[in-house]
């Protein structure tokens, strides 16, 4: 394969991994600063976590190049923090969390150590596309339904869009895995849609604030 194409692929992988170090950080900061989680879908976050975990384990168990999926453990850690914050600010009950976390960690470790057969991951991987898509659709619907994106970080969704696009390129060169390519292509489109919706409603909110401020001055 062309040396320069592979070099570009490796460069994109490094950039993607570097950006994923802070992928959810703007969103985390925005929630903490605003003290609320309005416009964020909790169920969407859980679905997103499931999708990330299955994809990471699939890549790991199939011995794909580390650079092609190294961002996943980084994102997953940030996802834990984000879910915890949303749970806190939405004042949701967390009684089932320890049990769910135990099941989640146990199954992940069983796959990682090869105790559970990796063909199960192959069966589950196609589900990550509808699951991941559903998580983003739920987030999009939450923003549109509330007409409020004040707690949503546009930067986080831009980074999500960009890193998904770069992954389409790197995976195509590395393994050309159909399911992974489909997953990232759909994810790119939906991340872009959430970003656009958040920008629109934040702009609307800013305009309303300016109008309200203008009325008060008269």
Automatic annotation (TrEMBL):
Location(s) in or outside the cell: Membrane
Annotated signal peptide: none
Protein name per the record: Solute carrier family 66 member 3
Entries under InterPro entries matching the protein: MannP-dilichol_defect-1, PQ-loop_rpt
Pfam families linked: PQ-loop (PF04193)
Keyword terms: Membrane, Transmembrane, Transmembrane helix
Gene Ontology cellular-component annotations: membrane
Record field: transmembrane: 6-25, 72-89, 96-113, 150-172, 178-201
Major subcellular site: membrane
Membrane as UniProt keyword: yes
Gene3D superfamilies xrefs: 1.20.1280.290
Superkingdom of source: Eukaryota
């Amino acid at each position: 394969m062309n040396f320069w194409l592979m070099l570009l692929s490796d460069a994109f992988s490094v950039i993607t991994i570097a950006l994923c170090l802070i992928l959810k950080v703007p969103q985390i900061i925005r929630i903490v600063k605003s003290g609320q989680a309005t416009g964020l879908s909790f169920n969407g976050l859980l679905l997103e976590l499931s999708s990330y975990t299955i994809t990471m384990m699939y890549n790991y168990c199939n011995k794909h190049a580390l650079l092609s999926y190294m961002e996943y453990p980084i994102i997953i850690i940030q996802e834990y923090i984000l879910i915890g914050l949303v749970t806190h600010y939405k004042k949701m009950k967390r009684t089932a969390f320890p049990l769910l976390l135990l099941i989640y960690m146990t199954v992940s470790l069983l796959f990682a150590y090869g105790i559970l057969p990796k063909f199960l991951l192959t069966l589950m991987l196609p589900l990550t596309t509808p699951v991941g898509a559903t998580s983003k659709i739920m987030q999009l619907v939450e923003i549109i339904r509330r007409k409020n994106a004040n707690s949503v970080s546009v930067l986080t969704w831009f980074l999500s869009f960009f890193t998904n696009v770069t992954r389409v390129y790197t995976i195509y060169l590395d393994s050309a895995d159909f399911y992974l390519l489909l997953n990232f292509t759909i994810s790119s489109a939906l991340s872009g849609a959430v970003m656009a919706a958040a920008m629109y409603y934040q702009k609307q909110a800013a305009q309303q604030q300016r109008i309200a401020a203008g009325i008060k001055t008269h």
